[in-house]
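hey m, so remember when u said the tokens were messed up on ur end? i reran from scratch. heres the input so u can diff it against urs
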Amino acid sequence: MTLRKRFTLFTIFWLIFILILFNIFVYFFVIRITTQSEEQLVANKISLLLENAKISTPGRLTDPNLLNEFYNVNEVIRIVEPTGNIINQQGSDQELLQRPVEFSRTHESGITYVSGMRVLYMKVPIYQDLNVVGMVEIMRKLNLLDSYLQVLVAALSVTSLGAIFFAIFGTYWFTSRLTAPLQTMVQTMREIDRSGKLRKMEHKGKEESAELLQLIRAFNQMIERLDRTFAGQKQFVADASHELKTPLTVISSYAGMLKRWGRNDSAIRDEAIEAIAKESERLQKLIKSMLTLAEAEQEDWLKLETFDTVQLVDELSSMLQKTFNRPIRIHAEGGGVRLTADKDKFRQLMVILIDNAIKYSKEPINITISHTKNMVRILVSDKGIGIPEHEIPHLFERFFRVDGARSRSTGGVGLGLSIAKRIVDLHDGHIDVFSKPDKGTTIALQFPKKNS
């Protein structure tokens, strides 16, 4: 069942339920009010009758003129003795006149039914010298009132059916407009699935509700993100193919040279072996970096723990300092700085940044670690060749190199900073680059402090 039909049926069901409750309430409320009004009229008539001087005079209860001025159509008034004998009676309705007499020494009133019609009755005792000498009984048919109630029922039924009729068409029209963007979205997704080409949804602006506009914007943002992701994947595949092609071409060329001339020429053989070994090592680094990037896309790539960043960076710097024979200076404010992060990934991040600083500078490398209440800040600075300002925005793109020839000479594959950026992003951190050509580069890292 479609959302439109469900919404329409749900709305109609609740409308019918509410109308039924409302009609029942109105019907019984009108009955109560009108019945109370009739009871008050009868009570007032009996009060006037009892105030008549004749009613308290012995022997005058049988006077035929006593009840004439109080008589009404569809009504019977009678005076009954305690023995049950009717001594005075006025009325023309045969059904009421044939009603049996039940004497009552107390005030009684209520509703009874005669031939399916409601009859209001009231009995009041008559006193003479503090003795009950009789009873006044009035019975009135409520046929006129019941006819009004039938008109009321008919009016409520017609208006309810009209309300339901208009509600069906109104709800269907409203849900059609409400679900139109959803249907458009479904059609767009089917078109994307059929053609394989991403495209956004168009919206009419003010004609749509705020929630639908948010849904359309979210859908379009998702399409934009998917478009960027697919474009990035295509570019990554193209760049990876290009990067893999170079070492494979070199290895293939030198392998062919060895086949043709290298067996008897030691110089050619040594050159080929050296080149193949070098390109194989470069190929291994490239594949390792590509696998690292692929693993970095997984949500559970990180294993968080709390550690001392100053201690970790100091140990890492000592190792790299001995390996590359380059001085690396650590500047830490306030001693140890605790950080909750993936220790191995953080170490990998620092290796990438320090390795780049060593490759492209000959001066000592400076690492500054500071922290605030909610943030850890790390600066990796060098006095190297620097980066042109227009190249900085592309620095974290995969396979991007500021100077391709220089990067190849230093063994870079253009994936290090992409991996670094991914590690920083997964830790909800931020990375900035400040650089000027021939003056050096500073990589600024910021990480929020988290509870482990």
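this time it looks ok to me. The mean pLDDT is 81. if urs says something different then somethings off w ur setup not the seq
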